[in-house]
Amino acid sequence: MRASRLLQILLLLQNRGRLTAGQLARELEVDRRTILRDVDALNEAGLPVLTQAGHGGGITLGFDYRTRLTGLTEEEAEAMALILSLMPQELADLGLAGPGARAQAKLREAFPDQTRRQMTAMPARFAVPPAPASAPDARRAALGTAVREGQMVWLAVKRASGVLVHPVRMELSRGGWVLICAMTQTRYPEAEWGDITLSARRFAATGT
Predict the structure, then answer these.
(1) Residue of 159 and 145 predicted with greater confidence
(2) What is the pLDDT of residue 72?
(3) Residues of the chain by 3-state class (helix, strand, coil), percent to 5
(4) What's the CA gap between 145 and 169, in Å, rounded?
(5) What is the pTM of this model?
(6) CATH number at residue 8
(7) Fewest CB within a 10 Å sphere: which of 7, 49, 102, 129?
(8) SS3 of 7-53
(9) Quick one: how many helices (H) and strands (E) in the chain?
(10) How many CB atoms lie within 10 A of CB 204?
């Protein structure tokens, strides 16, 4: 357990920067004294974990130290291999299949050699066929772009001839995607969508 916690401390400091002993204690669900003892142990092992007291102080990694350790057990590495072998239909819906495949490849390469070797055999041992792809609908990808980039959209819906909306969120329900728009929080189920035209106008999303 302690070895796993020490690795978690390294990864938290690497990914989040300076943290206090209290913040690390809350994150790892231990007391503050345990964190301080762990920091001493990391320093004794030759790792550059720096501690600064006083206001604005905290614990940080020095000398631009980076670790490629993942802390994955063998079973976790095998599970990750299967996760990375799948491509959710939802990514294709939103026009993100290509970026998703590139991200998968980069994630695989980010793991250490030993972990990658553990991951390599899994797709051959457990073949998971992709879910049947639904018919492509260009409106989903267009609205996904509008949500990500804060673009206004002219949307034809059954209840109106056309409305200019500020799309801030899309939710996937059993009946398909639901578009949620700013200010009024109006929800437009996919079954009500008509033609869609992206506007060149932008808006500042203030939350959903």
Answers:
(1) 145
(2) 72
(3) 45, 25, 30
(4) 11
(5) 0.58
(6) 1.10.10.10
(7) 129
(8) HHHHHHHHHHCCECHHHHHHHHCCCHHHHHHHHHHHHHCCCCEEEEC
(9) 9, 8
(10) 7
